[in-house]
Design a protein that fits this description.
It is a single chain. The radius of gyration is 26 Å and the shape is globular. The chain is built from 25 helices and 17 strands. A 7-stranded parallel β-sheet has the order 1-10-9-6-2-3-5, with helices on both faces. Strands 13-12-11-14-15-17-16 form a 7-stranded mixed β-sheet. By secondary structure, it is α/β, with parallel strands linked by helices. The protein has 3 domains: 3-262, Rossmann fold; 272-329, no CATH class; 357-397 and 437-632, Rossmann fold (3-Layer(aba) Sandwich). It binds 2-amino-2-deoxy-6-O-phosphono-alpha-D-glucopyranose. 2-amino-2-deoxy-6-O-phosphono-alpha-D-glucopyranose (GLP) is lined by residues 52-56, 83-84, 151-153, 159-160, 180.
C-alpha cells in the first residue's frame, strides 16, 4: 500500500452517515431529537435544541411535526435557540429567520411561545454587543444546548460564521459574504435586497453544544461538505472546526457525499468493487493527477497510485487504457437523437426510429437554454420533433423593475383604451405601487411576471431553433401556490405531467434535477416527473423511451457519469450563450464593479468549455465546448 492510500484511510474527521435520501436522513435525525426530548421529559427536564434555518433542516422539521401530530411528541418542555438572524429585519418580515421558524416548525407544534428564542434582527447597532452577550447568557442559563442542528453554506459557513471566523468566536454581528448573499438572492428577489449583516452564534458558541448534527443534501454542497469533513481545520472554512467537537455527526445524501474520498476516489481508502463507472472514474482521475492522456498511462502509474488492484482485475495498463479510452470516445456524438442509417452499436443513442419525438423539460425557464441550448439546436436541425416544456412559470424570480417596464409599455400602447388588457395593466401598476415592502405579489403581478418569462423563453428557443408552436408552458400549480424552499407538489401537478407525457409519447426525454437539493424547483419537478412516468410505465412507448439527465447549474458532469457528450463548435457555443442571454430578467440586477461571481451564461459557457478541456486532456479530440448528459431511469 503506498503512502497516499494510508493517509487517505483517516480522511474523514467527522463521522458521516450517507443516507439513501434526504428524507431518510431527516427521519433519522428527527428520531434522535424526539428520543432526546422524551428521555429529558421522563426526568422532568427540558430538552434544549439549537436550531438552524435554510432549506437543509426543513425535512427534519417536517418529520418533527409529523411525530408531534401522529405520535404525540410534545414540545411543551423544549427550549430552542436559533443560530442566527438577518440584522435589520423585523420578525414579521417574511424572509426573517423568525418567520421561517414559525412557518416550518413553531406554529405547527405545541411549543410555548416564550420557549423559542431567535436572535432579534431589530436590535439597534449600538446595543448589539450587549444583546449578543445576553444571548449567550440565556443559553447558559438554560443549561446549554443538548443538540445543535446545522446546515452548511457554500462558503463553508455554519450559522453565519463566514470564512475568517475564529474557533473561539461568540455570538456577534457579522458581515455576510457575497456568495452567501447571492445564494439568498432568490428569497429576497435580488441580491441588492439581501441584508448585509446578521447576528450569529459564534463558532465557539456552536462547539459548546453537547451534541452537533451537521446536514448536507444535494450536489451543490458536495465540495464544501467534503472539505469540512476531510480537510485540515481552518478558519477559512469555519465548518471544519466541527472536527474538534467530541460528539459531532454528519448526515449527507448520496449527492452531497459525492466529493468525499470514499465516494470520489474509493480506491484510496479501501477495497473497491470495480464497476464500469468506478473503473472509468479511476482512470480519468489518474490521468488528470499525472497530467497524462489515458493512452500514455503506464502499469507503474497505476500501481504507484493505489490502483494496483484494478490492474490485477482488468489486465495491463495497455488493455485498460484502450478500453476506457474507447468507452469515453463512444460517449461523443454530434447526433444526440441518434444517427439515422448508421451502425449504432457504439453510439450513445440508437439510430431508429428517425426522426424521434423529443421532449425537453425545463423546470425553471432558464434551465433549457443553460443545460442543452446547443443540443436542442442540433436535434431540430437533424429533423427531430422537439417539444420544450417549461414546467414552472418562473414568476417568483422576476424583479419588480422588470414587471414595471412591461406594464409601462402596455399602458403606453393602451393609453386611451379601456380594454381588458388595459385594465389588467392598471391593476398590476396599482398592485406594484401599493404593495408593502416584501409583501407577496398579487395574482396580477405574478401573472405579468410569468408572461415576462414566457417572452424570454420564446426568444431563447427561437435562437435554439425551436418554434413557439413546439413550446408548452405547464405552469405547474405547486409553483404557483408555493414559495421558494417550501413547494409542495400535489396530485394536480402529476396529472398535468402525465397528460404531457401521454400526448407526446417521447422517444427521448431530457430532464434535470436528479441530484439537486430536494426543495429546489428542479428537484421537485424531477420527483413529479418520476411519479408521472411511473404511472405510465405499462404503456408501450415508455419501453422505447430514453431519459437523459442534463445539468443546469454551474457544474459539469464528471467524466464517469457521462453517457453522451455533444461537442459544440465555437458558433454553436456563441448561439447557446445568446439563447441564455434572452432570460434578461434573471441577470444580476445590480452590477458590482469587481464582482467575482459570474452571470448564468458565463457559468454555462465556462462549464461547457471546462468539459471540452477535460476530454482534451484525457487524449480525446479538442473541442470548443461540450454539453453532456447522463442516462437515467426515472
Ligand atoms: C444560511 C444560514 C445557514 C445555513 C445556510 C445554508 O446562510 N444562515 O445556517 O446553513 O444558509 O442554507 P441552505 O440549507 O438553504 O442551503
Amino acid at each position: 500500500m503506498n503512502k497516499n492510500t494510508k493517509e487517505s484511510r483517516q480522511l474523514e474527521h467527522i463521522s458521516t452517515t450517507i443516507c439513501s435520501s434526504s428524507t431518510d436522513g431527516s427521519e433519522l435525525v428527527a428520531r434522535e431529537i424526539s428520543d432526546l426530548i422524551r428521555s429529558r421529559n421522563a426526568d422532568e427536564q427540558h430538552a434544549v435544541l439549537g436550531l438552524a434555518t435554510g432549506s437543509t433542516p426543513i425535512g427534519v422539521y417536517r418529520e418533527l411535526v409529523r411525530l408531534h401530530k401522529d405520535e404525540g411528541l410534545s414540545f411543551k418542555k423544549v427550549l430552542t435557540f436559533n443560530l442566527d438572524e438577518y440584522h435589520g429585519l423585523e420578525p414579521e418580515h417574511p424572509e426573517s429567520y423568525a418567520a421561517f421558524m414559525d412557518r416550518h416548525l413553531f406554529s405547527l407544534i405545541d411549543i410555548p411561545a416564550d420557549a423559542t428564542v431567535v436572535p432579534d434582527g431589530k436590535v439597534p447597532r449600538e446595543d448589539v454587543f450587549a444583546y449578543c452577550k445576553a444571548y449567550e447568557e440565556r443559553i447558559s442559563e438554560a443549561g446549554g444546548i443538548d443538540i445543535q442542528v446545522l446546515g452548511i453554506g457554500r462558503t463553508g459557513h455554519i450559522g453565519f460564521n463566514e470564512p475568517g471566523s475564529g474557533r473561539d468566536s461568540r455570538t456577534r454581528l457579522v458581515h455576510l459574504d457575497s456568495l452567501t448573499r447571492k445564494d439568498a438572492a432568490r428569497d429576497f428577489l435580488g441580491e441588492e435586497n439581501v441584508p448585509r449583516y446578521a447576528i450569529t452564534m459564534g463558532v465557539g458558541t456552536i462547539l459548546d453544544a453537547r451534541k452537533i448534527i451537521l446536514l448536507a443534501w444535494g450536489d451543490s454542497k458536495s465540495e464544501v461538505f467534503a472539505k469540512a469533513v476531510e480537510e485540515p481545520v481552518s478558519d477559512a472554512l469555519p465548518a471544519s472546526f466541527l472536527q474538534e467537537h467530541k460528539d459531532v455527526r454528519a448526515f449527507a445524501d448520496e449527492a452531497a457525499a459525492a466529493e468525499l474520498t470514499r465516494k470520489k476516489s474509493p480506491w484510496l481508502v479501501g477495497p473497491v468493487e470495480w464497476t464500469e463507472r468506478t473503473t472509468r472514474r479511476s482512470v480519468a482521475w489518474l490521468s488528470s493527477l499525472l497530467g497524462k492522456p489515458i493512452l500514455k498511462l503506464l502499469d507503474e502509474d497505476y500501481s504507484e497510485h493505489g490502483l494496483a488492484d484494478l490492474l490485477t482485475e482488468r489486465g495491463s495498463a495497455y488493455e485498460l487504457n484502450i478500453r476506457v479510452f474507447n468507452e469515453v470516445q463512444h460517449t461523443i456524438t454530434g447526433w444526440p437523437g441518434g444517427k439515422p442509417n448508421a451502425d449504432d452499436s457504439h453510439r450513445p443513442e440508437r439510430s431508429e426510429p428517425h426522426p424521434k419525438r423529443v421532449l425537453a423539460l425545463a423546470p425553471d425557464p432558464q434551465d433549457g437554454a443553460l443545460g442543452l441550448g446547443g443540443t436542442l439546436h442540433r436535434l431540430v436541425d437533424q429533423g427531430h420533433e422537439v417539444t420544450v416544456a417549461y414546467l414552472t412559470s418562473g414568476n417568483l424570480s422576476v424583479p419588480d423593475g422588470e414587471a414595471q417596464k412591461a406594464v409601462d409599455i402596455m399602458l403606453d400602447l393602451d393609453e386611451s383604451d379601456s380594454s381588458e388588457k388595459s385594465a389588467f395593466a392598471l391593476q398590476v401598476k396599482a398592485d406594484l405601487a401599493g404593495r408593502e415592502a416584501f409583501g407577496e405579489d398579487s395574482p396580477a403581478i405574478r401573472k405579468l411576471k410569468g408572461l415576462v418569462r414566457r417572452g424570454e423563453a420564446r426568444a431563447a428557443m427561437e435562437i435554439c431553433g425551436v418554434y413557439s408552436s413546439q413550446i408548452r408552458f405547464l405552469n405547474l400549480p405547486f409553483y404557483e401556490n408555493g414559495r421558494f424552499r417550501s413547494f409542495e407538489p400535489r396530485e394536480e401537478d402529476i396529472v398535468l405531467f402525465r397528460e404531457l407525457l401521454e400526448q407526446i409519447q417521447p422517444h427521448q426525454i431530457y430532464v434535470t434535477g436528479v441530484l439537486s437539493e430536494p426543495t429546489t424547483v428542479q428537484a421537485v419537478c424531477y420527483s413529479c416527473f418520476q411519479k408521472a412516468f411511473e404511472l405510465l410505465r405499462g404503456e408501450g412507448w415508455t419501453k422505447d423511451c430514453r431519459c437523459w439527465s442534463y445539468r443546469s447549474d454551474e457544474r459539469e458532469w464528471s467524466v464517469e457519469a457521462i453517457d453522451m457528450a455533444v461537442p459544440l463548435s465555437p458558433d454553436e457555443l456563441a448561439n447557446k450563450v445568446k439563447g441564455i442571454y434572452q432570460h434578461r430578467s434573471q441577470r444580476s440586477q445590480t452590477p458590482v464593479i469587481g464582482r467575482t461571481s459570474l452571470e448564468a451564461w458565463q457559468q454555462a459557457e465556462a462549464a461547457d468549455r471546462r468539459l471540452a478541456e477535460t476530454y482534451d486532456h484525457l487524449g480525446l479530440a479538442e473541442y470548443e465546448a461540450i454539453e453532456a448528459f447522463s442516462r437515467c431511469n426515472p
